[in-house]
Amino acid sequence: MRPLLHSFTAVALVATLGCGSSGPSPEPVPFEQPVVALRHVRLRGVGLRGGALEVEMGVYNPNDYDLVSPRVHYRVYVGDAEVASGLTDLNVVLPSRDSTVVRIPASVGYGAMRRAGRELLGTGAAPYRVLGRITVGTPYGRLSFPYDRAGQFSPMSARR
Question: CA 159, 81, 77, 110 torsion: positive or negative?
């Protein structure tokens, strides 16, 4: 019985020592998620393969340091239908404690344009949604955050 008790004590001691900390825990990265506001989605032109959209967003950087070189993953929906998706790298600096307008180019096919056109004919405006993830350069490495915004597309916003 004693050898079993010694074995159990040794296993418990090893398990307890294995759970100990090897040093102080790392400091959390001081990063506040930027605030993204959708300003416009505009139809910039129509070509042989479809249309060109421009997604315009205002981004407020609440951090004490600049955010650089945003990489924007995006999906654009009109109603319930996805009309565009992609990834774009922007050569922009988001200044510390300031707002910046970023413009994201997107392509949309004719099928998606037809769906949006039907929505416009029925109501005069088409609800859209833009969502994705933005990855930015910081003094602590590249960090990312999600965004999800909605609005209304109308023919008047396509002409600006």
Answer: negative
CA dihedral 34, 39, 41, 45 (to 10 degrees): -110
SS3 label, residue 2: helix
Place of tokens 């825990």: 25
CA 29 to chain centroid: 19
pLDDT digit string, tens, across residues 126-136: 788 889 999 99
Contact status, residue 129 vs residue 82, Cβ threshold 8 Å: no
Cα 46 to chain centroid, rounded: 27
pTM for this prediction? 0.71
Q: Residue 143 phi/psi, 5° resolution?
A: -125, 155
123-147 in b/e form (b: 16+ CB < 10 A) is eeebebbbbbebbbbeeeeeeeeeb
Among 141, 126, 78, 67, smallest CA distance to 102 is for: 67
Q: Is 66 helix (H, G, I), strand (E, B) or coil?
A: coil
